[in-house]
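Wait, can you check?
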Amino acid sequence: MTLLYSEVEEELRASVRDLLADRCGAAAVLRRVESGAPYDMDLWKTLSREIGVAGLLVPEEYGGAGASAREVAVVLEELGRAAAPLPFLTSSVLATVALLRAGEGELIRELASGETTAALAVSLAASPYRPPRETVTVTGEGILDGEVRAVAGADVADVLLVPVGTALYRVRAADARIEVVPSLDLTRPVATVTFSGVFAGEAIGRFEARRVLGFGAGLLASEQLGVAEWCLSTTLAYIKERRQFARPVGSFQAIKHRMADLWLDVVRARAAARNAADLLATDSGTSDGQERARDRESAVAVAASWCSEVAVRVAEEGVQLHGGIGMTWEHPLHLYLKRAKSTEVALGTPGAHRDALATLADLPAPV
């Protein structure tokens, strides 16, 4: 086991970072947010087809790259650093993992090629530690009725994967009513998805909620790490240039102490996120031993609880240390603060992950 980045991972990072720097700068993201259509689907096609990020988790037999969670984590770090409005987490992680667990090969091929984008019709706030609320019903003829709120990526998806109990159904997005609702994160809209007599046919497989959502939570920590790293480096650059009393603001001892604390938080977050990604990379999808599964779930809980709070803390400090400019719409810091705050409650709150960790470590809270 190593938490260091491999040569392949660094090459993947360089390719993704260069493309995002060229086509997904802060000014471009702000323009898209103001336009009301934040997702950059042209950029997504380039990333998914030319660099192949859409099929990283997909085995080679289905036309994917046959990579692991480690490579996916590197991509998520870079997307977090750019606050990129792309459906990678929703389509290439959550939906893809759900399909791999269900064993649906045809749609997996389409997702791996970048031809199709999918979304898992589960609330972004759903916790891995308890089954999602059942708000959709299915008849014996395979007709779906009901609605799911706060679904991320539904507005740009071609296919919706709808869990009903432990069964997973495939529905064309065009057959459902998708209404985007106001959300804190302007770069990742959420929508209310309504099914009214929608024909889904037979279930395509079994939906393993805890495994799928837990996998997503563990990798979301890498995106939160990227958000924190960008906020830290941007704030550091600013306090070196901003002068007060004929001195750089960063030369004051109080500011140095605050930055040192943030740096330590980010370093710890990197270790936690890398550990989770490394253990998720060994998840074979089969029963691989109770001890290994416990280690993996513990690593996910640690990374999800720690990285989510670190991202918020570093973003908040960044706004404070930027002074007045940090409070303006023109500066992109607010995008990162909103991304950090919204992902703090995505796929399980920090408290939920800590409760799960206490149970896994056999250290229940006092009664």
